[in-house]
């Protein structure tokens, strides 16, 4: 039995134990307890002594009771862990050490319980576990592995992810040499060797984008980073990360490749391609567009808008169109547009503008594609001109054919009729009369043939003999030749043509034209007044306009306008009217690529406008 | 031989006028044949005649290509005259232009008068056939 003084002493000593300790008797009642133990469990003033331990704790495991009972039998069960919720409802963890309490005779007289609060340890462990999981997950998602090289043991260890990236089994044991040999021969292996060497010798960290060849022979892009570890300024090892960036690199390379493809494509398209932002500023231009704008590098036009590049009017039209396309989201396709540059150069384009629609359904720019069709346009125009000329010539030809056929037919009809009469005529006098008529018909036919011949000659000689002529020289020559005729008719010529006016013509035609118009003006004078003929000439864009106006009879344009220049058309009762002059004149003008127009009013006079074309 | 009171020949070619006149001599008898060198002279004569209530021609031989006023212009003015009787107009031309045939159709259908289209040369038999009161 324990003696009382001893108990006191024991009690006092135990009370002061720094470790929370309780002594239980064989009935598992608390005999002694350190203050720390009482504090631990917040027993405070509550008398714990003599109480059964299992009654002091509300929630305990059956396991503990068994452990305690085992202790009483002399069995040492080692430490156990207990969880309980304290008065503040906090999770707490304890480590219990239950050991048998022996007396001097090695008899078990109770149980000694030592308690350690391991709440922090446990929560740290949990936290660590969480961090570990998080870290594993992160490394799995980011494909970042780690490794560690211990200098002392020369041991290199790889984490799971690092092994996975290298495509080696999890039990693979790397060393520094095998590690380096995974890097692709050449740049990658050289770089890593140098980096490791520098880390060892100078303590320099590294971070490199390199290629490895995995155990399965696959090439992969990785970011390998290493950081030397020091302890007391001594290198103890290297810690590093190892990231698989193959997917990113492959994707990047693919993007770069498709960008290059796209760039090559748009630069070599025979089309002007550009992309504009919402403010119509250029954010992409291809080579053709650069060439068109006369710049060497896209940089020179990027960020500029049409107002920087084109005259205001062109720019505003383009901007309006851009806004329309971006607001309506409806593309403009293959629209013929005329683009004037600041230097005045005009280009015809087939332009398409396609809105660039963002995820929000709003256009944040547009793609423009322009095809320069200036050449085609010009060809088209030339072709149209050619068609016009051909059509005109064809018309003239048909017209001429009709004239020929009509004239020859009328003569031959007369011959046929007269000969028919002659064959059946018995009267000698009448026969003679018919023969005279036949002679007359024959003369008429010859005249007609001569006229037709003249027309044919004009139309076949065309431009071969065009040369510059001083217009006034020719006017003087003609008026000199007509001097007597003009004097007889009291005609006056008012010439306002400047002496340096030169025109490119067939001289003989010009002479004939002047002769004809001047003669006509006098011939068809208004009987009550003296004829005045005004000559005036102006030059405009490769064309010379000669105006010959008179104060003569004038012509009823409504009635005769379409026939004025026809063959054998006469409009005035004049003994000399043959109906051939104006026809020939018109042919001569047209043969020189010119044209003639007329304004006239009956009783007032006529103005003939003759356009001479300088080109051939 | 039939009787026709008044015949007009409108043609600027004296040989044709001579020929038609000569052939008419053996087809009709009596009556008067007038010739005009263009449409203007003829239409003026017709207007003059109607104003005097004198006899207007029963048959007209009409050329197309003439100065001052051609055959078509003459027809245009003629069909607008309000004449009580039908007149026979024989177009005599050397033209085989389809445009002229179309014009003839145009006037023929627009007019109550008898209008025929005849190509030169004209034979006596033809003159015989087309020289009658409409």
UniProtKB/TrEMBL annotation, chain A:
The reply to whether Phosphoprotein figures as a keyword in the UniProt entry is yes
Instruction: Provide the Histidine kinase domain boundaries.
Output: 403-616
Keywords of the record: Kinase, Phosphoprotein, Transferase
Oxidoreductase recorded as keyword: no
Task: Give the EC number(s) under which this enzyme is classified.
Answer: 2.7.13.3
Q: Which SMART domains did the record assign?
A: HATPase_c, PAC, PAS
Task: Enumerate the spans annotated as PAC domain.
Answer: 206-257, 333-385
Pfam families referenced in this protein's UniProt entry, alphabetically? HATPase_c (PF02518), PAS_4 (PF08448), PAS_9 (PF13426)
Q: Which reaction does it catalyse?
A: ATP + protein L-histidine = ADP + protein N-phospho-L-histidine
Q: Which InterPro entries match?
A: HATPase_C_sf (IPR036890), HATPase_dom (IPR003594), His_kinase_dom (IPR005467), PAC (IPR001610), PAS (IPR000014), PAS-assoc_C (IPR000700), PAS-like_dom_sf (IPR035965), PAS_4 (IPR013656)
* Molecular-function GO term, any one: protein histidine kinase activity
At the top of the EC hierarchy, this enzyme's class is transferase
Name of this protein: histidine kinase
UniProtKB/TrEMBL annotation, chain B:
**Keyword terms:** Phosphoprotein
**Tagged with keyword Amino-acid biosynthesis:** no
The answer to keyword RNA-binding applying to this record is no
Report domain Response regulatory positions. 6-134
GO annotation terms (biological process): phosphorelay signal transduction system
Q: Which domain of life is it from?
A: Bacteria
Q: Which residues carry this modification: 4-aspartylphosphate?
A: 63
SUPFAM superfamilies recorded: CheY-like
List the InterPro entries hit by this protein, alphabetically. Answer: CheY-like_superfamily, Sig_transdc_resp-reg_receiver, TCS_response_regulator
* Protein name per UniProt: Response regulator
Cross-referenced PROSITE patterns: RESPONSE_REGULATORY
One Pfam family name is: Response_reg
